[in-house]
Amino acid sequence: MCQLHASIVAGGGRAGRVYVRLIVTLLIVLGGVVLVPDAARAAPGVCPPACDVIPDSAWIDAGSVPLFGEYRWPGLASAAVTAPAPRFEFESWCAGPDVTDDARDYAVAARAVVRHPDGQWNLLAQVMHWRGDTVTGGRTALQVLELARIALARCQLTAPDASPSITTSTATDLVAVISESGDRVMHTYLLADPASSTVVELTLWTTLPAQVDWRAEADTVVLDAMALPLCATYLGSCR
């Protein structure tokens, strides 16, 4: 499927990528795709869906992260640490209830955080991967994204000072801006890739007034950069 993806993207850009991802999503939801990985130990570069760590190659290129020109973000793999019970950064702002039997508790996950003083932008990147066949893992990734969508929609109910605005919402993508009583602001990007049983988060936030104006590519450009490493990283997931 990587070859198919490449040919469609070359001819149709973002629309082609979304088309392929939606087809894969539909097949997984219907149970029509079964990818059985070979047993393998984790590798620092790439690995099949049986990985037990997040490979270095899974991270978005630092140069594609918003505000790279101002902050020169480090390579995220070098800053990553294991996240044994990963949660999305926006959840700490929205103060929603815990999810019962949260699938993220048994994901293989890592996060990279870069913090700056007040008024400067902070960065969190996170990769969550579910081991095993992608029928099960792909559905889990989509369900985790859907629960995040619900939590964002309810954010102002659970945290009255927070004001969320969803700017992109598809079966596999979710982008939102959250303002909090004029004190701080967050931009969060979430992507589910059912073909590799993976969810990726990219979140930036700052206290106000911000010392650096927000500048970023269109949502679709950032999401594409988040998705790009996954096909090559999880070998066998995109054939």
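[next item in queue]
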Amino acid sequence: MDNQIEVIVKEEKGRIDKVLNERLADYSRSQIQQWIKEQHVSIDGKVIKANYKVSAGDKVLIEIPEPEELDLVPENLDLNIVYEDDDVVVVNKPQGMVVHPSAGHPKGTLVNGLLYQIKNLSTINDVVRPGIVHRIDKDTSGLLMVAKNDRAHEALAKQLKDKTSLRKYVALVHGEIPHEKGRIEAPIGRSKVNRKMQAVIEDGKPAVTHFEVLQRFEGYTLIELQLETGRTHQIRVHMQYIGYPVAGDPLYGPKKTLKGHGQFLHAKLLGFEHPTSGEMMVFEAPLPEIFKKTLQQLKEKD
């Protein structure tokens, strides 16, 4: 049977999709509009259209259809496996690759490639995220740890939670940062303006990012960052917040930016305690070619 959500309109005014979008934090406006279009939204038993203007006391019923099952297909994506043993895999993800399947990305994801190349993956997460302990954004390149069994998954996830794992990133940002080091502590949550974005908001989750300047160019700075927390889009949001957005970032950066394959952000170093041996393992991945080429061009310009 379909899931149902009931919303009673209080003092809100305006279009039904806008009002529902403000009330239902877990769903996007486009998702709500899709439900209205597919006639899953009714008021007092009558199916309504997207331009319906709400009135105080309206009882809105949303019948959420069962999600379409994603068919997880192993694909030969020739993933760059940096390390593998019986418990863990370390993979260097290219820019442009989504970590796990979703409605908009059913194939070509890191998980599809892992299913082809790795025999066993942990089952702790839902069916579309086997082995996935943590994520990086589609257009961020670099290192990810993957668990091959549930015991390893729990151990690695605990290290992330306890902040004992090591994660360092390299980013090229707009502007010339005057100081050598910085610590950004600002809570992050879903943007109230654009639901596809995250933002620094008062009632967000705690987020801490450390950075250090590696090199300055005319109009840009190359920095190394270390995460204390792992919020969605954390580096991108924090750097925009302090006025030095990541170059090439289509969501948080300026329109006039460096051409690449998305943001110039690379997860270059990953360290964790091995779930079985207890040994501290540290891996490093070189910058993607487009990143190196862009830095060379900036050097030549200086």
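[queue empty]
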